[in-house]
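Handout for the seminar on molecular recognition.
Each group receives one record of this type.
Step one: identify the two inputs.
Step two: read the structure output and locate the region that could contact SN-glycerol-3-phosphate.
Step three: write two sentences on what you found, then compare them with the reference statements printed after the record.
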Amino acid sequence: MRLLFVLLVLISVPISSVPVSSEYIPEYLSVQKNRKILVAHRGASSYAPEHTLAAYRLALSQGADYVEQDLQISKDGVLVCLHDLTLERTTDVERVFPDRARTESNGRRRWYVSDFTLEELKRLDAGAWFDEKFRGERIPTFQEALDVVRGRAGIYPETKGPEVYGSRGFDMERLVLEFLKKNKLDRPGADPRTPVIIQSFSAESLKKMAFELKTRLPLVFLINSDPGGKWLTAAGLKDIKKFAAGIGPAKNLIENDPDLVKRAHASGLTVTPYTFRSAATGKYRDVREEMHQFLYTYGVDALFTDNPDQFPRER
Ligand code: G3P
Ligand code: CA
């Protein structure tokens, strides 16, 4: 009888009564009800080399709710964590494999991740470029990243360059979802201590995961700019809602148009801007003040930061 009553109450709550104010943070995003969410951008990457296990561990110790992984694919089809499609910015690939670059039309030499097997990638140093004390850090596989983060925070993988990998015979979206399935993380709430959100700058990549591969995991659409007004109008946001649960706009898009947060919330989308870092705070005194403004004045739900230790938990 009691169960029947609860069911009747639930059925009678119209969808439209779900609050969409700036204080509403949906269950999927929230680690704790209505708590603002801290996503460690490439780990605690102001203090440790981005996308190393050292950066991920530091982010966890600094209270990250989620740790971000930008994903690339090795020649032998393994998902690894690295921001760039190429290796030369954050590893010593030029020294270890001097003859393995592709030369672009402008003469620039590039060492693509997908030209190297995992065994070769593991020979590279991914820490010393940042600081000598991190020498010996390696490019982590997605599995190694998950093993460090699991049970302590959520993961927030990004499909990087999915169309480039597609042109090289890889199916990045399928690889990511198969990886999550293998790790029993392919359903929302599968491991409450390790929520999963997938992000991409590619609407096509997200649509493929939502409609073709039918994931139910929350997807966040990253938006760097919106020159023709395609996405950030009320109509554009409504379109995004068809395939994503939230938007991840560059922070200047909100700074220049704070109403964007209200429009997105009105469309049922969460808002997670990027990237807040102590090295670039614009008009703000410091990164804590900047994050505070976005979280508590502009009303974003979450944000990506290189400085997890500066995230203002209180209003
Ligand atoms: O994914 C959020 C933010 O990381 C997007 O920028 O270039 O650092 O991946 P990027
Ligand atoms: Ca990213």
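Reference statements: The first strand starts at residue 37 and ends at 40. The chain is about 30% helix and 15% strand.
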